[in-house]
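Dear V.,

Thank you for sending over the compound details. I've combined the ligand you provided, S-adenosylmethionine, with the protein sequence from our construct and run the structure prediction for the complex. I'm sharing the raw inputs here so there's no ambiguity about protonation or stereochemistry in the SMILES, which I know was a concern on your side last time.
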Amino acid sequence: MFQSERFFREAWPQISHAFASPTDAASDAEWIVGAVALGAGARVLDAPCGFGRHSIEFARRGHQVTGVDFSETELDRARKAATEARVELRLVCQDIRDMEFPGEFDLAVNLFSSIGYFSDDEDRLVIDRFWRALKPGGVFVLDTRNRDQLVRSLPPEERKRVNGWTVRIENAFDPATSRWRARWWRIKRATAKSKDTGELIGESEIRLYSAHELSAMLRPERWGRVELYGGLDGTPFSLDAARLVLVARK
Ligand SMILES: C[S@@+](CC[C@H](N)C(=O)[O-])C[C@H]1O[C@@H](n2cnc3c(N)ncnc32)[C@H](O)[C@@H]1O
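Below is the predicted structure of the protein with S-adenosylmethionine bound, written out as structure tokens.
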């Protein structure tokens, strides 16, 4: 069990559609394909893929996509969405720490804050798995929260409407460990102003890395080039950027 495992198995599938937008996925995929100059019919690894929003967008653009996630619930949704979109996906139910894809992919992506779930050593091993999965010349794109922006802007509480109810998130950032802990509550009444604190549905914990830490974890000597951006739209990286995006070519 890792810290957020229960959260991702039980709570996240109840709210993923409210937080992870298919519309954003279309523009993310469009930017990635252009930024890395992805060739026609390229092989793409999307891990973890969640309910497949990016996988589907890469497949729509003619690429051969493998999506990996450990949640059967999210993979089922990805399967249904692929059928609706009339695209084919290869979907693998697996822990990303166990991925074994030797030199198969032209592009590998880890999107929407999907690193930092484990110990630092295990996170580094996950990044190694992406490196191994790529062909020589293949590109790895990692997109996560920018730690240095989050530490100055994380609100203690957030609320979001989810299909007729409200999710209330209590945030805490531990500067000693750089771990962002959140407690997620379900409030039945949909009013965001309600004083009702709600029912606890899950607790998550993510290690946030600064740009220099993640760059070092990639082992820069392994990559021909590593670029930093502040979003999946080519925004320059800065302390004020909400996202940290690394683009590394093997
Ligand atoms: C924040 S979501 C992002 C999903 C997707 N990249 C997106 O942008 O929609 C994180 C995903 O990681 C999956 N996940 C969490 N821990 C995992 C693990 N150890 N192995 C595989 N998948 C995992 C969850 O099931 C969830 O779908």
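A first observation: The first helix runs from residue 5 to 19.

Warm regards,
I. M.
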